[in-house]
Task: structure prediction
Amino acid sequence: MTEHIDIAGYCRISVDEELDRDNVSIENQKAIITDFVKHRFPDSTLTFYEDRDRSGYTFEQREGYQAMRHGLMDHRYDVLIVKDFSRFSRRNSRGLVELEDLRDAGVRIISIGDGIDFPNDDDWLKIQFQFLINEMPVTDTSKKVRNVIKRRQADGQWICAAPYGYRINKYKEFEIVPTEADIVRLIFNLYNNEGWGYKRISNYLTEQGIPTPRMSEQMRKEAEGEACKRIAKATWAIVTVQGILDNDFYIGTLRQGKYTRVKINGKEVKRNDGEHVVIENHHQAIIDYRTFATTRALREKRTRSHYRGIKKYDNFYSGYLVCGDCGAPMFSMSRNDLKSAYTCGTYHRRGLAGCTSHHIRVDKLDELLKKYVRKVKECSAEMLAKLNEDLRQEESNVVETEQSADHLAEILEDLRRELKATKRQRIRDILKHPDQESLLEETYDELESDLQKRMEGLTHQIDLLSDKRNTIIQVNRAAKTAMDVFDDIMKYGSSKTGLS
Result:
């Protein structure tokens, strides 16, 4: 008479279809375990536990396994059976520690596909090797996924979510939402031209009943028949306004790779700006570059000067003028009954005992500034012609750079496949000729080192081309903005150009 024992059968399917291509379904695993128990332990009780769409790299996130583990540790089951150890764990160190814990609790573990009955078949070296083989696809897949994400980020094709003012259309492109774009422009206008701060802007938007970004998202999803689980608040947050003003996405720049993970399932770590993947002119802009540059300059200035409100008078020339006689800074004279002007700071403090007034009106300064800018522009005809030519050629230069980067990316992908094939061939040759392991290791180390160096060189070239593309756009954009400012100075003077 066979002994009656209580058996726990564990099945798991991963979120990665390629990783689990040999474990196509939970039902398939159950059928294999049921057939095994029927022939090996015919009078025993079999209870199944399962985890769907759960990674084998951790145990904590698997609800089914945790429930089964309590039963094993409480001795409700005598044996644990899995189709193979890849269902149990794909992490070498954690899997072996968990296996030892179960063994110490008196649990017998059977892996059908690996031919292991532990601890009856206590071949620890064989078990370690099996776990090592099982972990390789996880780390390989993780690297593969990271490489795909990096490549798609570099191409501007890794689109996860759209910020307020945009939506992702069916072609996976960013599309402007007109009503939200108007609010974005309003926020920039209130900050740049009205002198409002984050709090005042957020309070104003709330008082006007303007839907917050989360509310807009909720209304859009409900209109499309989708469920929205996130809670939407009607109050605009200060941090939301600050985030909009700080986001260069609104000038058409796609910035990715702002966070990274040091290890699989690890915490996200913020990266420096220089490490971001940046693509200029990626999508249609809501805000022009000059407006955004003004915002950034104002934010830096207000941070340094502890800004607390709106200036009553715009003293655009303050900080730039000094008295020709005593060298003191010129002092702004701002009164409703007089035209704006500047006077010597020493004269303002001490009168004629210190210096004379050196009084000069702002409109006179504007005339002088216009003449100077006009002269600079006239003397820069050759430079302007070159700038206009560069602007006309920008699109063709950018396209040429992108094509070169795409070609190098194809070569890089071929090298990655070659390196992967070389690693597999290394294992085959060592298993086939164990007596020549040292020679084979040395040979394959040289081959893989050469491939790695070539891949690093190509990656560096692709990064340089990406930097070149962005530099072309940034330099031309900055130069064009500067010339636009010069034109505005000659047309309006200082009052509408924001010289400060």
Notes: Residues 17-23, 137-142 have pLDDT under 50 and may be disordered.
